[in-house]
User: Which sequence fits this backbone?
């Protein structure tokens, strides 16, 4: 019952946040530019096209009417047409969504598998050489520009050593899409060759994205474990003579990891932002590459569509994380 | 204050960070004197294009034959200018909003904070891309895009800190003595919470520089021939793997300055923020 209240509470906040996002994108696309119609029509549009666009977008109306119409059109999935591909922006974005989600999800798994154990080690051996070393490595991991790291990996592993593919998701055209997730698709068809090829292509992009994500997880896990170690219940259990191993594994880790779960939302944001440039470097046909190509082509509707969908995904993930945290942390629902 | 500085001086990581920042700062200020080819920001020497590092061009040359070392030095000016001005604007917007929303309670505060939450609900680079794309590529627009997306970090922080110290005795005493709300906020609350603002600002510098470089890499930064580091890396891509120096050194420069701010920020937080100190470095 308490969980239900929590869920409803969070979902209620979801609507104004989404409206706020729409308002920001509306402001950027309709209020900042001197002539939004010219932007929407593209660089080489004729005066007649721009005039038609102005009437069609209702840009002669007052701003609040414009905003209502804008929200209306987004709600029915109309983000305008891409000037470059000529297709509705929504279609373009949706067709590229699985590639980005697959990359992001694999990265989250890899970063968690690396980050959590390292964070725990760092906390349990506080102020040892391993802890200091990890502190330096994590700070460095958050200081590297991901597009530069991606290029260095390509330079070394693909161009010099030739052991990883330079770009793309698979050799050739890839499997017939069922879900659009290549790992899932090749498993459904039990096509081991494609599966291995897809995984092989993932190594460098995932390594690039996982570096800052794992660094963040290490830092939060470390802080969480240290906080738990210094709490009163650990003091109590130690005083009662519980073996340290049991305290750490049974109580400290469970409580510390609750904090780490909440960081997944933050990490997802890092990854979405990272995906923009990493996909561009690796020609990964996802949302990020679409956004970068749209920037290069001055494809205005497409860039705004990307902003909306990236923002919405981020808000949804944070909502899910909030709810998940409420479920695993009994204090939230008490 | 002296105690804080002494503690900071004892932390080797913070001192390394400070040293890295000072190196880049000096490089930016002294660029005309330190550079070997000061004219190469705009000059081309196509006959020596893409030469590897040598005695004359210490870090090699780029696709136009310009000296990469000299361009990097002038690039430091652009990077630091963008980051310092953008952060300054973000602080000047965010801190007053946080103070006012934290000091007063009511609908106005809620609206201000919900507004900044919405900005925080979108990854900063995504919003910055949308704004920079709308405004067009230039230094001023990068600064505008960054400050417009980063101010909520300070608003949130200052709001939370103001709320938590509002009921402290020293604030109540100031109010009881008849201080105006402005006086309480600026002369009593602001100094009390300044250490968190300093920590947040130092760490924010690193993140802002990375975002600015990313905008440059995507072609949304200052236009050529500006020696902006991110743009230089983007240019270098068609000459890989041959001209490795072209991509390697600008990225290294970004890494050095961001690492400097991150190390210093980390150390400052340990020294200035007692609540986090407990968790991060023991007693």
Assistant:
């Amino acid at each position: 019952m308490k969980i239900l209240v929590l869920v409803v509470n969070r979902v209620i906040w979801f609507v104004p946040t989404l409206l706020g996002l729409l308002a920001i994108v509306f402001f950027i696309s309709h209020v900042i530019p001197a002539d939004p119609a010219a932007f929407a029509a593209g660089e080489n549009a004729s005066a007649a096209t721009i005039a038609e666009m102005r009437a069609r977008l209702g840009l002669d109306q007052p701003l609040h009417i414009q905003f209502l119409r804008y929200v209306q059109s987004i709600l029915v999935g109309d983000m305008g047409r891409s000037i470059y591909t000529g297709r509705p922006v929504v279609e373009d974005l949706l067709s590229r969504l699985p590639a980005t989600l697959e990359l992001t999800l694999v990265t989250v798994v890899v970063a968690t598998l690396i980050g959590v154990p390292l964070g725990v080690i760092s906390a349990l051996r506080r102020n040892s050489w391993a802890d200091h070393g990890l502190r330096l490595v994590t700070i460095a991991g958050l200081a590297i520009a991901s597009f530069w790291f991606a290029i260095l990996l390509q330079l070394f592993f693909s161009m010099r050593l030739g052991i990883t593919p330079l770009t793309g998701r698979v050799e050739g055209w890839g499997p017939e899409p069922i879900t659009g997730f290549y790992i899932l698709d090749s498993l459904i068809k039990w096509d081991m060759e494609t599966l291995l090829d897809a995984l092989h292509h993932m190594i460098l992009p995932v390594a690039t994205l996982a570096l800052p994500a794992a660094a963040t997880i290490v830092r939060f896990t470390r802080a969480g474990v240290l906080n738990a170690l210094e709490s009163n219940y650990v003091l109590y259990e130690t005083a009662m003579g519980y073996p340290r191993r049991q305290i750490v594994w049974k109580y400290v880790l469970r409580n510390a990891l609750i904090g780490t779960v909440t960081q997944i939302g933050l990490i997802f944001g890092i990854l979405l932002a990272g995906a923009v440039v990493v996909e561009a470097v690796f020609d990964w046909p996802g949302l990020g590459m679409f956004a970068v190509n749209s920037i290069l082509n001055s494809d205005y509707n497409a860039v705004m569509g990307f902003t909306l969908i990236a923002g919405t995904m981020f808000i949804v993930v944070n909502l899910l994380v909030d709810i998940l945290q409420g479920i695993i942390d009994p204090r939230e629902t008490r | 204050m002296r105690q804080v500085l002494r503690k900071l001086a004892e932390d080797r990581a913070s001192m390394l960070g400070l040293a890295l920042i000072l190196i880049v700062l000096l490089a930016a200020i002294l660029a005309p004197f330190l550079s070997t080819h000061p004219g190469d920001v705009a000059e081309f020497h196509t006959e020596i294009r893409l030469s590897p590092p040598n005695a004359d061009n210490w870090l090699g040359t780029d696709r136009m034959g310009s000296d990469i070392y000299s361009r990097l030095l002038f690039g430091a000016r652009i990077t630091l200018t963008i980051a310092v001005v953008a952060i300054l604007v973000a602080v000047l917007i965010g801190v007053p909003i946080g103070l006012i929303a934290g000091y007063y309670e009511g609908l106005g505060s809620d609206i201000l904070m919900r507004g900044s939450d919405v900005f925080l609900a979108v990854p900063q680079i995504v919003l910055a891309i949308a704004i920079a794309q709308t405004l067009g590529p230039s230094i001023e627009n990068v600064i505008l895009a960054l400050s417009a997306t980063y101010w909520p970090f300070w608003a949130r922080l200052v709001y939370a800190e103001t709320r938590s110290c509002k009921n402290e005795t020293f604030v109540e005493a100031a109010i009881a003595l008849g201080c105006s709300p402005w006086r309480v906020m600026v002369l009593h609350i602001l100094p009390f919470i300044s250490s968190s603002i300093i920590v947040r600002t130092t760490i924010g510098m690193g993140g802002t520089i990375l975002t600015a470089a990313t905008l440059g890499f995507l072609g949304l930064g200052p236009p050529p021939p500006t020696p902006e580091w991110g743009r230089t890396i983007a240019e270098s891509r068609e000459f890989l793997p041959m001209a490795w120096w072209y991509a390697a050194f600008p990225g290294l420069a970004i890494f050095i300055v961001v690492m400097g701010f991150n190390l210093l920020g980390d150390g400052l937080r340990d020294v200035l923020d007692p609540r986090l100190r407990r968790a991060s470095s023991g007693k």
